[in-house]
Model the fold of this input.
Amino acid sequence: MSGVEHSDVIVVGAGTAGLAAASALVRAGKSVTVLERKPYVGGRAYSYEHPALGETVDSQHVLLGCCTNLIELCEQAGTAKKIRWYDEQTFLEPNGNASTIVTSDLPAPFHFAPSFLSMSMLGWKDKVGLARGLMDFFRGYPAEDTESVEHWLKRTKQTELSIRHFWGPIVMATLNDRLSHCSTRYAGKVFHELFVKSSIGGRLGIPTVPLSEFYAAEARMIEAFGGTVRLRSSVEGLVQERDGRWRANTADGAYMADAIILALPFEQTQKLLPAVRMNEEYARGYEEAKDDLELKMARQIHSPYTSILLWYDREITDLDHAWLLDTTIEWFFHKSRIRRYAREKGSYVEVVIAGSRAQLGMTREEILSSALRELEMFFPEVRRAKLVKSGVLKEARATFSVTTGLDQFRPKQTTEWPGLFLAGDWTATEWPSTMEGGVRSGRLAAGAVVGDAMRFMAPETPASGLMRWLSRE
Ligand SMILES: Cc1cc2nc3c(=O)[nH]c(=O)nc-3n(C[C@H](O)[C@H](O)[C@H](O)COP(=O)(O)OP(=O)(O)OC[C@H]3O[C@@H](n4cnc5c(N)ncnc54)[C@H](O)[C@@H]3O)c2cc1C
Done:
């Protein structure tokens, strides 16, 4: 490329945050250029051709009924029909016991009551404690993020079994970190949205196609509205020109715009910040504001995630997905069933270890053999089936952790520097590290660009049943 390309807004990064920001702005009539350093869009929600396996692989990403902005974005891009929705969830114990949570016709907040009462994975004492615990999030969730989930569980005297079979798995799956790290504010939000507020907030949605294919439609939508998406374009420096406009420099060219949105994870924002050059008018205030942002980023920590991918010569169960209790592997996705592959092709399965710090130091063989041993306990057919191929995906920087006290260190989407905006799941969204958090941050940044912060935000899931009168929100 030669010369400088001009547009109204440059978006750096084509993860969920960048795609959401760019989609909102092109739909509002702005000209937008998205610069993404990888050869595909989707960011951490990506899939790729695994050379050794000869398969397109990804770490399964799920969404929930309360992810209203992500769902709306998918509807706009035409990918909503590529999400399979489940109202039923199965919890398996290694001894063969299965408990199912399914939405009933009772009005919220009682929609899960019949399932909870019949769950064999918990005793009566556990269930009474659980009901009492959920009452804490009846009207909403805590405004402060100072208490850890571990502390809350002790304070509300939750039983050891309910922590092992309910609270722990839900927190690990949604916040991707251990109970002692996560704040009750975010766990409370999850419990309120999924189990109390409405009968649709806790529905489980699973994309039925590989993730980069899923998000490619968002990129096509941006282009259909006149935007440009440039892949393999890593931004290496940002310069604010004399007239206040911004120039983004990549290895093969320069791009100019009135505004720029950095839709990056915090560690990539941290890397790029020293390569930002302000014009003279703003240079003075820049250093101080930069120090403040750097301090905020220094408070963020990552939490890892490990996926074990398995291909069997036959179907090992007729379940599409399940929670796996009391083992290192925590979740099971039957990808060949979710994606409706022909049964004769056998089972393509993913098992997941959330918050997998211990696995970072283990070899792939160690992780695989332990996962296979554990999987047999839940699905005896695994012993008879032939494992055709397998892979282990370790993501050391999968998510940021919603540690206690983090909220004050999540920056807003507007910055001290005119025309420079931040997005990314880690910025202030009131959501944990999720695709919905990414989309919200992108839409908030797009709103800030047009001077109307909430303009692009979808409405929250409405409270249903009795919660229409009882919910605070
Ligand atoms: C294994 C795994 C499992 C997960 N499971 C779930 C789940 O089930 N449900 C859920 O909701 N969330 C899940 N998440 C979290 C979710 O993926 C993230 O919260 C979300 O995708 C963050 O989006 P983002 O746009 O903020 O950041 P990112 O997705 O990280 O996007 C940032 C983009 O910026 C690009 N970039 C970086 N530097 C530059 C540069 N200098 N120039 C140009 N481009 C650059 C990157 O290549 C990337 O594409 C999971 C994450 C992982 C890794």
Q: What stands out?
A: The first helix runs from residue 16 to 27.
